[in-house]
Amino acid sequence: MNTTSSLAFQPVLERIAEEIERTPGRGRAADYIPALAACDPRSFGMAVAELDGTVYGVGDWREPFSTQSITKVFTLALDLAREGDELWEHVGREPSGNPFNSLVQLEYENGIPRNPFINAGALVVTDRLHSRTGDAAGELLSFLRAESGNPALDFDEEVAASESAHGDRNAALAHFMAAYDNIDNDIPVLLDQYFRQCSIRASCADLALATTFLARHGIRADGTRLLTLSQAKQINAIMLTCGTYDAAGDFAYRVGLPGKSGVGGGVIAVVPGRCTLCVWGPGLDERGNSVAGVAALDRFTTLTGLSVF
Amino acid sequence: MNTTSSLAFQPVLERIAEEIERTPGRGRAADYIPALAACDPRSFGMAVAELDGTVYGVGDWREPFSTQSITKVFTLALDLAREGDELWEHVGREPSGNPFNSLVQLEYENGIPRNPFINAGALVVTDRLHSRTGDAAGELLSFLRAESGNPALDFDEEVAASESAHGDRNAALAHFMAAYDNIDNDIPVLLDQYFRQCSIRASCADLALATTFLARHGIRADGTRLLTLSQAKQINAIMLTCGTYDAAGDFAYRVGLPGKSGVGGGVIAVVPGRCTLCVWGPGLDERGNSVAGVAALDRFTTLTGLSVF
Amino acid sequence: MNTTSSLAFQPVLERIAEEIERTPGRGRAADYIPALAACDPRSFGMAVAELDGTVYGVGDWREPFSTQSITKVFTLALDLAREGDELWEHVGREPSGNPFNSLVQLEYENGIPRNPFINAGALVVTDRLHSRTGDAAGELLSFLRAESGNPALDFDEEVAASESAHGDRNAALAHFMAAYDNIDNDIPVLLDQYFRQCSIRASCADLALATTFLARHGIRADGTRLLTLSQAKQINAIMLTCGTYDAAGDFAYRVGLPGKSGVGGGVIAVVPGRCTLCVWGPGLDERGNSVAGVAALDRFTTLTGLSVF
Amino acid sequence: MNTTSSLAFQPVLERIAEEIERTPGRGRAADYIPALAACDPRSFGMAVAELDGTVYGVGDWREPFSTQSITKVFTLALDLAREGDELWEHVGREPSGNPFNSLVQLEYENGIPRNPFINAGALVVTDRLHSRTGDAAGELLSFLRAESGNPALDFDEEVAASESAHGDRNAALAHFMAAYDNIDNDIPVLLDQYFRQCSIRASCADLALATTFLARHGIRADGTRLLTLSQAKQINAIMLTCGTYDAAGDFAYRVGLPGKSGVGGGVIAVVPGRCTLCVWGPGLDERGNSVAGVAALDRFTTLTGLSVF
């Protein structure tokens, strides 16, 4: 990794935004629920947050969008902080090598999901956090508000209800793992917790700030330690190898940073010890990642040299 | 990544060797062929090579061992240098999420292996390099001799013959992909090429040196360019996400460097822009990676801060 | 098939019962719910019903037991009678070639179960019958009472509750198929219907009589037609190829009759145009079929020549 | 099974031939090798052989065609006659529930094919027969000549060579099973034996006659016993449950007889204790069975009542 000691992020962001603006074709917004389908696929925002909380942004960087799977990173951090390595007896840390909802591998491996970022794994993490806190979704929301400094962050109950109405695959996953004794809570309770987490709306600025604890190796915005250095590395490593569905290898090559995407079109990324990023563009590629988001991160690491490889 | 500007590698290596020496339990050497089973599982060597070719070492770092799957990295580089992105139409870049020999995913994905480091993928790369050069194994050997500066490197014909005698799974993979038109050469010719490559014997010093072109972003020892910057990044990314069989996630977390292991007990790793490493310890864990090798790399990145995350 | 024109069934049954009595080892009763685990694995009953409703029996042939998956045959008949071939767009007629609960094949084939006798398929049939009648379990119970002439047949609510408490795999299957739009009813409603059906208690005599409509090519006990000749053949064929979990090939060879087993230890069988049989022995083999039940049917077809092959 | 004591087969065959003649659409001939692709899809022949060797026929019933997978039945009989139940430790007797060439199930079940009629299973049977006789293909040819009374039957070396040139999937299967120690002979030797067997040309009359030993419960044309009664039943049962690729359930329902199809467009069927049939029509459905062949057998059992169910 080549670090440029005093980078001016703002001109970089503006250059990227111009390039993205000129790029034809941005994929299609997710259409399985109305709230996502309604997004303008030409929306684009990008933010960089430095370790001290300074944020730079461009485009729609202050507009809230549906965070969806991006929240899996924070739920993982919150549970890992509480229970430590015991978590890894209930969910693995290896890439899945299959489309993100597949039940096959889950059956082959006796109800232990491959990693915390496939849906099955995220359900397990939520289940465990809920058992420890009594309100997994509330814990997550409090954390995001505190780290982003934005008390207005909230659930989108309409999105949560839509997800629930299309929630049969997740219900199947949850019941399937319950059959292997890998789920503690009642399934409807768990699913409600899960869908509410995914429904949280936040902007690029909010998410870039909320992610900085990973760039600070586990230290929260208020200076307290959430994760050990080792745990922070653990999460970054999982983001790099498993953060973008079945395109993690591609993302590792093109972007070369730990990252996590969501079907709402957001992508977060971490430059350990340096800064965090969040990009939003609702149009997705066929593997469920934001077309503009991955392109913008690709350009960012190329322009700044802030890549792992 | 925290870089220490003037690291003294030798004391670090010696400290690691002492720690490994005191560690009980080192796994079991591969026993499917006699030459590997005969290795002393207590052997241990480690070398670091800087970009300028300076090498530091400890223990059995000058003793040749069977490189096995480590050669997949070099074959990939040699073919990628020749045909460029066309290669990616014949082999993917995503983690496999399954034990390294599995046929399931290969069938599901119509004969296109997930990545160049599972056996199926390495067979495709060898096949393509052989079609382009007429002697894939010879090309590889020449390259390793040149980069390591060691003209004594050679095939181990006894090991190659042993592999061939136990080669039914690889033969099945090759025929299976041929049925999908993803293999060009005759299968016996291809298998001979493949097993001879895996049989090459080299020491930690040799392999650390031979890997430096990846730390130099594609530049060979003689200063000529083998790979574009982008291709070098590509290979590093694939090493990080797919280099250690079904333990890539674990390796990414513990070591945090692009790496590639072989069942001969060797592991190579790359610190982009800085140095390369090779460790050898014949005892393997249940996923086929060197127990001492992964432990030593783990300690190295912890002691030096030379990790990606 | 060699038919013996005037068979005396009673002596055959008594000879079989004696042989079974002398046989050591009868497998283990299902133990996933208490009511099944409490069964004496040495219980044994067997009944033969002729087309005119004459019944012969031996041992515990009048003792009620938990019918479990045997009811899948009757639910299939009731739904097929109502909707005809349209059913086959929602469930297949081919053997599954996998343990009976596997999700793999269901995913591979887009939520269409392979046949009506694996759990996924039986859930689809129950779902469709329930949509057509508003009370699938009630329809089934009425049918069994009418055909057996035993108005005392009833659900075992304790067993239904136990099944429900261990119902996560079936819930997973149902939600999974719902995600493919292959389930109409709410999942809790469907599961309640399904578990109540499986809980019905009936004796060998009851079940042999209730099955005679299949030996009469679709004609019920009261002389009315439930199924067309073609539909009756359809069900017999599915019983032969899919009626005994992953042992259908073995059953076809040993018994050579259309049959269906349940984990309660019952097995029914059909000699088309001639008679029906029901055997009960709670001890199961490793594939979930009654050890004594299959052995008794094997002896019956050997002694009488009433086999298909 | 309703048996009609003195059936006049000839008028039945003629009626069926007329109906088939009027049927539009007959599927497509296999086109993976030239010799099969060259067949006229409108060809049609059908023969019935009684237990005493009397043969009735219609259409192209005396024209030789490529027997292909039909030979699997005879090879199985020849090996089972020699080694008995030991064979079942190397190949199963259960339906495969997957397209006939799938490697997945083979991996899941450690190299033991599900049944002798999928390609993997047939390779195992051929391998074992070859080990016992030194010339599996020669044994098969002698048997077919003797049973059909036609000394002109022979291999079609051109077809065998074509199969061999497209034999990568079968080579993959053979090597894969060899890796599980379930193949004894050298793979090229085994494949040569296998492809030569499949290449034998015979007419409907020849094959109906050659199959009569199964209708006679194991007795050959010369009155000697090849199989025990039990072994003959075993083969009939496997034909019913596994004889028509992934359409065995459908075939059982429509035809209701033990049968075996080949991609050359032939289908044989057995009415135990009564007669045998062979139909030929080169046009195949999407599951690889002769469209006209299955339709003709369907009509035959409907018209004569000679069905199992």
From TrEMBL, chains A, B, C, D:
Its EC number is 3.5.1.2. The keyword Hydrolase applies. InterPro entries: Beta-lactam/transpept-like, Glutaminase. One of its GO terms (molecular function) is glutaminase activity. The keyword Glycosyltransferase does not apply. It holds the Pfam family Glutaminase. SUPFAM superfamilies: beta-lactamase/transpeptidase-like. It is an enzyme of class 3 (hydrolase). It catalyses: L-glutamine + H2O = L-glutamate + NH4(+). Substrate binds at residues 69, 119, 163, 170, 194, 245, 263. Keywords: Acetylation, Hydrolase. HAMAP family: Glutaminase (MF_00313). Belongs to the glutaminase family. Homotetramer. NCBIfam families: Gln_ase, PRK00971.1-2. PANTHER family: GLUTAMINASE. This is Glutaminase. It comes from Streptomyces doebereineriae. The lineage of its organism: Bacteria, Bacillati, Actinomycetota, Actinomycetes, Kitasatosporales.
